[in-house]
Amino acid sequence: MPSGTQLDFGQPERKVYSVGELNGRIHDLLEGEFPEVWVEGEVSGAKTYPSGHTYFTLKDADAQIKAVLFKGYGQGMKFEPKDGIKCLVRARVSTYAKRGDLQLIVSHMEPREKGALQLAFEQLKAKLAQEGLFDPARKRPLPAFPRRVGIVTSLQGAAIRDMLTILRRRWAGLEIAVYPVKVQGDGAALEISRAIQDFNRRLPETDVLLVGRGGGSIEDLWAFNEEPVARAIAASAIPVVSCVGHETDFTIADFVADVRAPTPSAAAELAVPEKEAVLERLKGSAKSLAAAMTSCLDRLALRLRAAAGHRFLQAPHRIYEERIKRVDEVAGRLPDAARRLLVGKEKDLRRSLEKLQALSPLNVLSRGYAIAEKLPERAILRSAGQVAKGDKVRVRVHEGHIDCEVT
Q1: In the predicted model, is pLDDT for residue 388 greater than 90?
Q2: pTM score, two decimals?
Q3: What is the biggest distance separating any 2 CA atoms in the chain, rounded to whole angstroms?
Q4: What are the pLDDT digits (tens) for 19-63?
């Protein structure tokens, strides 16, 4: 044996893993050891991506763990995982092998403080209210006298029978269109929303639409709490009356609809007036109108009789005879008035002429006075200082003028 050689007895050979191999082994071990666990905690940092997958953190006072709810599992849930919700999840423990992150793959969630349906109801109600779908300003009044009424409900049960009976009794001959749908269970919400859309597309002349069903548990009525039904009602050009369950039941459809009826029977009564009552009101109105017309005619007859006794109506020529006399009188006075007016004006004119003559400078010249003007500007001379030797002066006398030169 060569000098200096050391032998290592009993030491096992080292197993060296790559990072990927180690993460893979951990992934397999965890999924094999924890294929299903129930974990309770509070949702934090929830974010749903366009893919439909929701990532969040499940935490309590001491620790936290990442979790993911894939789209396929989330579709069956009634509520959305939002921050702050305390819930119980069923999941398998796994890792994201690429990064070695520990996470829960969630297959089921249920809220701990409220029932799942109640929480889902509150979440959707808050969402639609924020969008303005419950705003009273967007709700429309029902037509006073509809010619066609549409019904979206199940053909099974007492609701449809009650509505048809009441509608036909209240207004015989009314056109009624019924679109049968499922009103509970899987696919019910989709059928209801499509029925509302079909009425608007195929029968747009429908005057009012009754959408609902008879009473039941919250699970039975849940289709009317689904978002597709709410949005179909909101988008309907036909006014919608919601009539879901009993008087104390409220659904999302009730908040979105133009009018909420407490029961299907009440919806039928709201939608259509009672023909007999309308006819009675028309008869009463006709009687009132006839009485009002008779009273008006009686008043006019009294006025006519009173007018017939007036002297002008008995002898109409008296009306214009009086006026002819007045015209003749005025015409007779007119020449004298005109003469007096002209004489007065002539006197005024003479007085004015006399005043003008008295003030005229030509009248002063006739008495031997003269007016001197400096040439060539013909400025009136008022003092000798205004001229100098050699200036030309024109002297105006009563008849003509004399041109002079200052010496």
Answers
A1: no
A2: 0.55
A3: 179
A4: 877 877 777 887 777 788 888 888 888 898 898 899 998 888 888
Token reading at 105: 């793959």
Question: Domain check: are 387 and 329 in the same one?
Answer: no
pLDDT one-digit tens code per residue, 176-225: 999 999 999 999 999 999 999 999 999 999 999 999 999 888 888 999 99
Residue range(s) defining the domain that contains residue 354? 309-359
Q: Is there a single domain that holds both residue 147 and residue 252? A: yes
